[in-house]
Structures are given as structure tokens and as C-alpha cells.
């Protein structure tokens, strides 16, 4: 399934322990993809481990690159984040420039999918690592979404509230201004109600930490998201 049609995504953090039994449930849940990624502690060893274990199942698997050292062949897609509201160019384009300088000749460009992140929870790891300016109004976030779609032509705009449930009004306002760029929402989904609510607005809903905190609830979000049909 093309990433443009994904509705539900489980984000599996290679730096976190997960049993084979839990991973099987996640892979067989009906989710559209397993997105392997985390802000820190991601190494080639834990990425290989998770890739081999997920590959036993038919679900697509994508790597969300957080550092070049942990990239390996064998994923269906490679998602490349740029944190648009980072105060440091490193997280917007410098690491990317370095990676392309080194590997540009051998890159399979069609497998790469660029994501424009807007990180809105000041307390989350990714906000802190990337020194994101999270003190943004609704209009600021809308402007980042327009920058992503109309200026940079990014295929994905990702509203990231990692660890906390986001502001529905901001997400809705962003959705209204996007046409071709897909809107990913991620952050703090712990109930079926939240999953359904964000699925009514965003193109794609990303569920992460609840996998590790309450697997049963996590599995229920798949049905909740898939049950929301476009009017
Ligand atoms: C074999 C093969 C296919 C080779 C390809 C060659 C190659 C190296 C291609 C790379 C191309 C490229 C341009 C790479 C960019 C490199 C790079 C390092 C970019 C920086 C990415 C970036 C901005 C990372 C910052 C962190 C971030 C946005 C991570 C995404 C994941 C995320 C937000 C997780 C959520 O946080 P979490 O860790 O879950 O937090 P908690 O633990 O608190 O839950
Ligand atoms: O872990 P949670 O809070 O569910 O967030 C999901 C994802 O957006 C993290 O990058
Ligand atoms: Mg996480």
C-alpha cells in the first residue's frame, strides 16, 4: 500500500524492548505499516534486530532515519525527517546534506520520503534534542504547513506532539490548508476516542508509546482509525 493511503501507523522504537508476542500482535493488527524510529538510542544493532523480527510478517516496514549510522537496506521505505521549527539548521537540512554528500551516488531516491515535522510538545525528547521552537500560534503552524506543501513540496507534514495529546483545533486548521501534502498526526494517543478523533482530521494517525504502556489499548486504535470513513 502506498504511504499516501496509510491511515494507521504503529511507530516501533528500536531502542525499546518488545517481546516477540507483543510484536506479533502489532504486526498482525491490521495497521498499514510499522514505522521504525525513535529520537535517541537508535543503533544499527537494534534496527537490524527489529527489521528481522518484523519481516516475518507481511506488514510493510519503513525506517524513519534519526541518524545515518543506523541506516540499512531491506526496508520498504525510508522516511527522512526535517524539523521545520528547529532553531538549528542541523535538524532541517545539514545532516541531510552530509548524508547526501557521502551516499548521494548510491541512494535509491524513490525509496526516500521526506517529512516536514512541526514539533509542538516542548517537553518531548525530539523537541529538546532538536531545540525546536514550540512556542507557536495556530497561524505559525499553518505557515509551516504551507511552507512544507507549497514551497518545499514535501509529501508529508507531520504534526508531532510526541508524549501528549495535541490540539484538535490546530490540527484541523492545518488540514484545511493542505491539498497534496499528507498530514500525519502523532502524539499521546492512548484511547480509541482520541484515535478516532484525530483520524477524522488527519490523513494518517501515528501511535507510538502506548504500544509499550498498554498493548491492548494500542491494538484497539487500529479499528478506531480504520472505522473513520471520509464523508
Ligand atoms: C541502505 C540505504 C537505503 C541507504 C540509504 C543511504 C542513506 C544514508 C540515506 C539517508 C538520506 C538522508 C537525507 C538522511 C538524513 C539523515 C539525518 C540524520 C537526518 C536527521 C533526522 C532528524 C531531524 C532527526 C531528529 C529526530 C527525529 C525527528 C526523529 C524522528 C522520530 C521521532 C520524532 C520519534 C519520537 O520520539 P521518541 O523517541 O519516540 O520519544 P520517546 O522515547 O519520548 O517516546
Ligand atoms: O509516542 P506517541 O506519543 O504516541 O507519539 C507517536 C509519534 O508521533 C512519536 O513520534
Ligand atoms: Mg516513542
From TrEMBL:
Q: Which Pfam families does the record associate with it?
A: PcrB
Q: Where does Mg(2+) bind?
A: 13, 39
E.C. designation(s): 2.5.1.n9
Q: Would you say which domain of life the source belongs to?
A: Bacteria
GO molecular function terms here?
heptaprenylglyceryl phosphate synthase activity; magnesium ion binding
Q: In which pathway does it act?
A: Membrane lipid metabolism; glycerophospholipid metabolism
Q: What are the entry keywords?
A: Lipid biosynthesis, Lipid metabolism, Magnesium, Metal-binding, Phospholipid biosynthesis, Phospholipid metabolism, Transferase
Q: Known catalysed reaction(s)?
A: sn-glycerol 1-phosphate + all-trans-heptaprenyl diphosphate = 3-heptaprenyl-sn-glycero-1-phosphate + diphosphate
Name the residues that bind sn-glycerol 1-phosphate. 11, 158-163, 188, 208-209
Family, per the entry?
Answer: Belongs to the GGGP/HepGP synthase family. Group I subfamily.
State the function annotated in the UniProt record: Prenyltransferase that catalyzes in vivo the transfer of the heptaprenyl moiety of heptaprenyl pyrophosphate (HepPP; 35 carbon atoms) to the C3 hydroxyl of sn-glycerol-1-phosphate (G1P), producing heptaprenylglyceryl phosphate (HepGP). This reaction is an ether-bond-formation step in the biosynthesis of archaea-type G1P-based membrane lipids found in Bacillales.
Name of the featured protein: Heptaprenylglyceryl phosphate synthase
Q: Please give the organism.
A: Lysinibacillus halotolerans
Gene name as annotated: pcrB
